[in-house]
Design brief:
Structural class: alpha+beta
Number of strands: 9
Distance between the termini: 49 Å
Order of helices and strands: EHEEHEEHEEEE
Number of helices: 3
Radius of gyration: 20 Å
Shape: globular
Helix content: 10-25%
Number of domains: 1
Strand order of the largest sheet: 2-4-5-9-8-7-6
Length: 178
């Protein structure tokens, strides 16, 4: 027999509670406790809504609406930007870039059909395109290590944490594979 006092909610529901760190009201020094978030597995992917929500919460914009399932960005009038299937690690890295740069970040390309396929690509959720801006351009060029030209002629830079970003014609092509 199950003790109903142990599980006061239906067996098929998950009861999640978020606790907040205690506020120090004594006036004595205390150490701040960082917020705890669920770790993202390197290969874990996010759906469109979760990815957009995480970016929005960090103050990062996505330039266009989501692509219809199965439609390439070229087939949508005015284009579209999909984040469905983007890796959680990629979202974390974009958020870290925003926090470190303290500049506007706009995602202009994600996992939408029409981007290059491959093991490490937009389609695999390992790459995003970021709009250029004077602040972002300066941050990358002054804080990242220039590593030479890519085979297509794009200048490449390596971030301190290892990701590679290349300056394509009108955007930054960022690769966050490990």
């Amino acid at each position: 027999m199950v003790n109903k006092n142990v599980f006061p909610w239906p067996w098929h529901q998950i009861n999640c509670q978020v606790s907040q760190p205690a506020v120090n009201t004594t006036g004595s020094p205390s150490v701040a406790t960082p917020a705890v978030s669920a770790p993202t597995l390197p290969g874990a992917t996010l759906n469109e809504q979760a990815a957009r929500s995480a970016l929005q919460q960090a103050g990062i914009t996505v330039n266009k609406g989501a692509c219809p399932i199965g439609a390439s960005y070229q087939s949508v009038p005015g284009g579209c930007t999909s984040l469905n299937g983007i890796k959680g690690l990629v979202v974390e890295e974009i958020v870290a870039l925003k926090q470190n740069c303290q500049c506007p970040i706009v995602v202009s390309g994600g996992t939408e059909l029409g981007h290059a396929q491959g093991a490490i690509s937009h389609a695999s959720g390992d790459k995003v395109d970021l709009q250029t801006s004077p602040a972002l351009d300066s941050y990358i060029q002054n804080r990242f290590t220039y590593i030479g030209f890519r085979s297509d002629g794009a200048m490449q830079y390596r971030a301190p944490d290892g990701f590679i970003i290349a300056r394509e014609d009108n955007h930054w092509d960022a690769t966050f594979a490990q």
